[in-house]
Design goal:
The protein has 303 residues and is α/β, with parallel strands linked by helices. The protein is built from twelve helices and nine strands. The structure holds N-carbamoyl-L-aspartate. The site of N-carbamoyl-L-aspartate (NCD) has 12 residues, from helix 3 and helix 7.
Length: 303
């Protein structure tokens, strides 16, 4: 595998076999039993946007595999002085980067890096486009709770329009024939969302989305990206907030997921966030072995 094919840019361009290979390898990774698969390697974490879970879990994953990690955030770096994305990339390569993990506000940023810089690139979220490591850790979480994707119905409720998490999840789940229902108001779930991938439909009424659902994914309303769209929080809460009463509309053994950050009192109540069906912290925990697998794959050690 060359550096390009070891990159992880999007779920859309992976086939089901490669996804299962990564998920299987992730299940063999344990952060408490470190393996030196990245010993002597340098992993650069290049973050142009805020992050808590993604950044720290890539860092913990890289260190568990024996790598050195270096964090570059736009604030406090030459990015603030106007250095271009590619010049930053060339600089990191000159510093001996073996892997670059990048989060950027523009869709396609990771692809641009990958085209010009001969280092495996991992997309940790590019604008409204994709968030492949999140989709893989979510798939990992689903499989730990549901055994297989066969016959599953997944409902994704919230701000789909601004969500790279939802886009990557749709691509991944669709490759395994999962029935996906996207739910929210027109402003956040445009009708065109059904074209993301086969098997995707839209429901406006949250009860319709929940009926028969095995896995419920909630998303934050991304207020920082709304740009002119008007969402009335009181109206959103009245129609879409996940409460214990609403959650009862889903299957009895439905699990509740959320990529974080969660806004208690908006897209969900605390009772639901901390309830028996919540897998939110399990998702965070599964992020580390999943990202260990992604990093091992990046350096050609996924066997
Ligand atoms: C999300 C993101 O940044 O894409 N969070 C994450 O990575 N777990 C979603 C969000 O910011 O709401």
């Amino acid at each position: 595998m060359n550096s390009a094919s070891r990159s992880l840019l999007s779920i859309e361009q992976l086939d089901a076999g490669e996804i299962l290979k990564i998920l299987k390898f992730a299940r063999s990774m344990d952060p408490d039993r470190p393996r030196p698969l990245l010993k002597g390697k340098r992993v650069f974490l290049l973050f142009y946007e805020a992050s808590t879970r993604t950044r720290t879990s890539f860092e913990v994953a890289a260190k568990s595999l024996g790598a050195q990690t270096v964090l570059i955030q736009s604030a406090g770096s030459s990015i603030e002085k106007g250095e271009s994305l590619l010049d930053t990339g060339y600089t990191l390569r000159a510093l001996g980067a073996d892997v670059i993990v990048i989060r950027h506000p523009n869709a396609g940023a990771a692809h641009v890096m990958e085209r010009h810089i001969d280092v495996p690139i991992i997309n940790a979220g590019d604008g409204l486009h994709e968030h492949p490591s999140q989709a893989l850790l979510d798939a990992n979480t689903i499989l730990r709770n549901k055994k297989s994707f066969k016959g599953l119905q997944v409902a994704i409720v919230g701000d789909i329009f601004h969500s790279r998490v939802a886009r990557s999840a749709c691509h991944l789940l669709s490759k395994f024939g999962v029935k996906i229902i996207l739910c929210g108001p027109h402003e956040l779930v445009p009708e065109i969302a059904t074209t993301i991938a086969p098997g995707v439909s839209v429901a406006r009424d949250v009860n319709d989305a929940l009926h028969g659902t095995d896995v419920l994914m909630l998303l934050r309303v991304q207020t920082e990206r709304l740009a002119g769209l008007k969402i009335d929080p009181a109206d959103y809460i009245a129609r879409y907030q996940m409460t214990s009463a609403r959650l009862k509309m889903a299957k009895k053994d439905c699990i509740l997921m959320h990529p974080g950050p969660i806004i208690r009192g908006l897209e969900l109540t605390s009772e639901v966030a901390d309830g028996m069906q919540s897998r939110i912290l399990e998702q965070v925990r599964n992020g580390v072995p999943t990202r260990m697998a992604i990093l091992a794959r990046a350096v050609g050690k996924m066997r």
